[in-house]
Design goal:
- The protein is of the alpha/beta class.
- It has six domains: about 100 residues, DNA repair protein MutS, domain I (MutS, DNA mismatch repair protein, domain I), CATH 3.40.1170; about 130 residues, Nucleotidyltransferase, domain 5 (2-Layer Sandwich); about 100 residues, MutS, DNA mismatch repair protein, Chain A, domain 3; about 100 residues, MutS, DNA mismatch repair protein, Chain A, domain 3 (Orthogonal Bundle); about 210 residues, P-loop containing nucleotide triphosphate hydrolases (Rossmann fold, 3-Layer(aba) Sandwich); about 35 residues.
- It has 27 helices and 27 strands.
- Strands 13-23-24-25-21-26-27 form a seven-stranded mixed beta sheet, with helices on both faces.
- Strand 7 and strand 8 form a beta hairpin.
- The protein is elongated, with a radius of gyration of 36 Å.
- Bound molecules: adenosine-5'-triphosphate (ATP).
Length: about 850
């Protein structure tokens, strides 16, 4: 950066800026944060600020932009949301008292992964920072949400797993120590993940050993250390709310690549990126933000442990069976605030009086929850309640200390109850006494002077004064009153005794607010000691919230409790797709069975487009995932294996970040499944091979099926339009054909959405094209080509001769060919909207058409 000015302040600025070259430097000057040089130019564009210049008169004025300090949060937020970092530089001493240049320093580096949640909109969003270290045997990974202080750690062998984990976690920032390929760096950036360098920090920090205490793996320890060091170095304060890191094995959960999670729309719709339209949207009946976040976590990490799944199911069952306990819990949960994030604010020291009271209220609500569980009469619920510690003493100490409706600010008094501190009570008495004295004085002065509208007032500049309206000035006792201020209609005076009492009152007031702040800070410190217990409580209530939500889902939507098969068989009776069911009018979803015995591994699904093949396939995956997070499932009954992995190649939600072509993505996803699936996995392949020439595609699809059949044995649903493949059931004993039914009535295609045994007999593609409103000429051309191909016997055609001479006019045999004009006429007829026409207009139209036909 060119150095242009050499004033002492700019010198200081450059020194600080040099330490944070990749961050926007918000440099505090009085009531503003100023940006200079490139930061100002870029910042003014992004934040829509006016770009001005410092030292305008010099030859090289410095570009400058500023934001008022009161509004700084929203500007910082905008930059960080866009993936930038912001270094906040404060004045570290009072400018009035400073000798020479005011000392300044960075108090916090805000980065995408360390942003604290701002508004209610992101209360269900976790904001993750991930740390990756590369070691000889693999990679250590740790991630944390700073607002809640939770930390998770794991280790993986392969680089590809690291990148997948970062993408599926949707981390906002990664601190990467190791080799990150340029293409992956690019990929992460496109996914809005900021890549940062590790930070350095001197000395030992208690937080590090505290959070590492349960870890045994050296890679995980290293990743966690790097994570905490980065947090400490950027936040520049102690972080008492960081939780003991939980180690997990990726293989401990059902594994799904991030593309699979996206394709199945578990937490966001693939088209809009929003919650609506996702499985999370359907299931999220949680009351608290903590519950919502936990449900989201569960959705991306379904369990493998049958014991844990059953434990969850038992809680859901108990709550489903007991409507009143459930309602009581929901009512009380409404009074529970975000304990995890409140703990974070306590640790950061920015929790305000109102929030501390919210904390106490949440603890009181917790007592009611425990009571409801205890009175339920159900042993599982009772036991759960017994494990919860409502922190009664803490609740009491907060409510005993704070007034019922404290203000947000801790610095303006009015927070602490009477009786908490003798000194405070004394100051308050003095203030009250002083105010009473003023009222008395006002009365006496009115009598003495005979001025009825004389009053005593206060302003910040002059303090207390006696105000007399202009008409009464003659009555003012000039010997006792000193004039202080003249207004249009009145004069203001002071007297020595008024000033004397003013001093007493103001001093008592300032001592009182100072003392209140001190008492509040003590309370805040006392709460700090309870942070780990509050976090544990938060986790327990969040889980309870999700169980209640599952019970409510089960009741409202008629979900059943799935059972699990150790014999690798599937038996779903009347299964439904939870999301499609939720958006269709009630009762119109057509349920389907899916029964796959131990001996069958592949269902080959045929049927017209739009008939419901994808829906049927996804339905199974969603039911399996719901079952493995402990939820009940949309079916009359369901028996499933515990799947270890889910693979998909579905639809057109291609990986926009990978820079690969559609066909390449298709093949990569197929490859994932072929390489990594086991006999305990679930594989969904929708129209594999459609992205290339017909025979290529068909051959690939056939070979893939055979490989899955012979070598993998995973439960596979394979939808295809290649009818030729349905003959595979003759040679592959573990493969069966099923199809989605459709019938034709009066030339119209009717979708039955019903799964039936055996292959489909027709493909109906042209019917669907007709539904989509394609021009008749195209439909007709397609129909005749189809006839021709069928006549030639497409299967006999030499597969190497891929360039069929489809358009050869000689070979197209047509009965009664239509003229182009007639085609157009037919298109016109089919497009007339009868609802918009009067009978007379229709008659006129028919007359026109008849005329046109005669002319041809
Ligand atoms: N069981 C069902 N009950 C009611 N409606 C259904 C059912 N299954 C699917 N549908 C409806 O049919 C639409 C098309 O389904 P889907 O996308 O699964 O078809 P498809 O056979 O996979 O089509 P394509 O081959 O073109 O991909 C869905 O959006 C849904 O509205």
């Amino acid at each position: 950066m060119p150095r242009k000015a050499t004033t002492p302040m700019m010198e200081q600025y450059y020194q600080i800026k040099d330490q944070y070259p990749d961050a926007f430097l918000f440099y505090r000057v009085g009531d503003f944060y100023e940006l200079y040089e490139d930061d100002a130019i870029k910042g003014s564009q992004i934040l829509e600020l006016t770009l001005t210049h410092r030292s305008n008169k010099s030859e090289n004025p410095i570009p400058m932009a500023g934001v008022p300090h009161m509004a700084v949060d929203s500007y910082v937020n905008t930059l960080v949301e866009k993936g930038y970092k912001v270094a906040i530089c404060e004045q570290l001493e009072d400018p009035k008292k400073a000798k020479g240049m005011v000392k300044r320093g960075i108090i916090q580096l805000v980065t995408p992964g360390t942003k604290m949640a701002q508004g209610p909109d992101d209360s269900q969003e976790s904001n993750y920072l991930t740390s990756v270290v590369e070691k000889a045997g693999g990679y250590g990974l740790a991630y944390s949400d700073l607002s809640t202080g939770e930390i998770f750690a794991t280790h993986v062998k392969h680089y590809a797993e690291v990148v997948n984990e970062l993408l599926s976690l949707r981390t906002r920032e990664v601190v990467f120590a190791g080799n990150l390929s340029a293409s992956d760096r690019d990929r992460l950036q496109k996914a809005n993940i900021t890549v940062s360098e590790p930070a350095e920090l001197e000395g030992e920090h208690a937080e590090i050993s505290y959070v590492q205490q349960k870890l045994t793996d050296s890679m995980e320890k290293a990743a966690v250390r790097q994570l905490v060091v980065y947090l400490l170095a950027t936040q520049k304060r102690s972080l008492a709310h960081l939780q003991v890191a939980e180690s997990f094995e990726i293989g401990q959960y059902l594994q799904m690549a991030n593309t699979v999670q996206r394709n199945l729309e578990l937490t966001q719709s693939a088209t809009t990126g929003r919650k609506q339209g996702s499985l999370f949207w359907v299931l999220d009946k949680t009351t608290t933000a903590m519950g919502g976040r936990l449900l989201k976590q569960w959705l991306s990490r379904p369990l493998l442990s049958l014991d844990r799944i059953k434990q969850r199911q038992q809680m859901v069952q108990a709550l489903l069976d007991d409507y009143f306990t459930r309602e009581n819990i929901v009512d009380s949960l409404k009074g529970v605030y975000d304990l995890e994030r409140l703990s974070g604010r306590v640790a950061f020291g920015n929790v305000n009086p109102r929030e501390l009271l919210q904390l106490a209220k949440s603890l009181e609500a917790t007592k009611l929850i425990i009571q409801a569980l205890a009175e339920s009469g159900n042993p599982d619920l009772e036991k759960y309640g017994q494990g919860i510690d409502p922190q009664s003493e803490l609740a009491e100490s907060i409510t005993n200390c704070l007034v019922d409706q404290p203000p947000i600010s801790a610095k303006e008094g009015g927070i602490i109850r009477a009786g908490v501190s003798e000194d405070l009570d004394k100051y308050r008495e003095a203030m009250n006494g002083g105010k009473k004295w003023l009222a008395q004085m006002e009365m006496e002065e009115r009598q003495r002077t005979g001025i009825d509208n004389l009053k005593i007032g206060y302003n910040r500049v002059f303090g207390y004064f006696i105000q007399v309206s202009k008409g009464n000035v003659a009555k003012v006792p000039q010997d006792r009153y000193t004039r202080k201020q003249t207004l249009t209609n009145a004069e203001r005076y002071i007297t020595p005794e008024l000033k004397e009492h003013e001093n007493l009152i103001l001093e008592a007031e300032s001592r009182s607010t100072d003392l209140e702040y001190e008492l509040f800070s003590q309370l805040r410190e006392a709460v700090k000691a309870h942070i780990p217990a509050l976090q544990e409580l938060g986790r327990q209530l969040a889980a309870l919230d999700v169980f209640v939500a599952f019970a409510q889902d089960a009741e409202e939507k008629n979900y059943c409790r799935p059972s699990f098969s150790s014999k690798n068989e599937i038996a779903v009776k009347n299964g439904r797709h939870p999301v499609v069911e939720a958006v269709l009018p009630a009762g119109s979803y057509i349920p389907n069975d899916l029964v796959m015995d131990e001996d069958t591994s592949i269902y080959l699904i045929t049927g017209p487009n739009m008939s419901g093949k994808s829906t049927y396939m996804r339905q199974l995956a969603l039911i399996a995932i719901m079952a493995q997070i402990g939820s009940f499932v949309p079916a009359d009954s369901a028996k499933l294996p515990v799947f270890d992995q889910v693979f998909t190649r579905i639809g057109a939600a291609d990986d926009l970040y990978s820079g690969k072509s559609t066909f390449m993505v298709e093949m990569s996803e197929a490859n994932e499944a072929l390489q990594h699936a086991s006999s305990r996995s679930l594989v969904l392949f929708d129209e594999i091979g459609r992205g290339t020439a017909t025979y290529d595609g068909m051959a690939l699809a056939g070979a893939i099926i055979k490989y899955l059949h012979d070598k993998v044995g995973a439960k596979t649903l394979f939808a295809t339009h290649y009818h030729e493949l349905t003959e595979l059931d003759e040679t592959l004993p573990h493969l069966k054909n099923i199809h989605v039914g459709a019938t034709e009535e009066n030339g119209q295609l009717i979708f039955l959405h019903k799964i039936l045994p055996g292959p489909a007999d027709q493909s109906y593609g042209i019917h669907v094209a007709k539904l989509a409103g394609l021009p008749r000429a195209v439909l007709r051309e397609a129909s005749s080509m189809l006839k021709r191909l069928e006549a030639e016997g497409a299967r006999e055609i030499n597969p190497s001769r891929q360039q069929l001479d489809l358009f050869s006019p000689v070979e197209v045999v047509e009965e009664n060919p239509l003229k182009a004009e007639q085609e157009e006429l037919l298109d016109e007829i089919s497009q007339v909207n009868l609802n918009e026409k009067t009978p007379l207009e229709v008659m006129q139209l028919v007359a026109d058409w008849q005329q046109a036909l005669k002319e041809e």
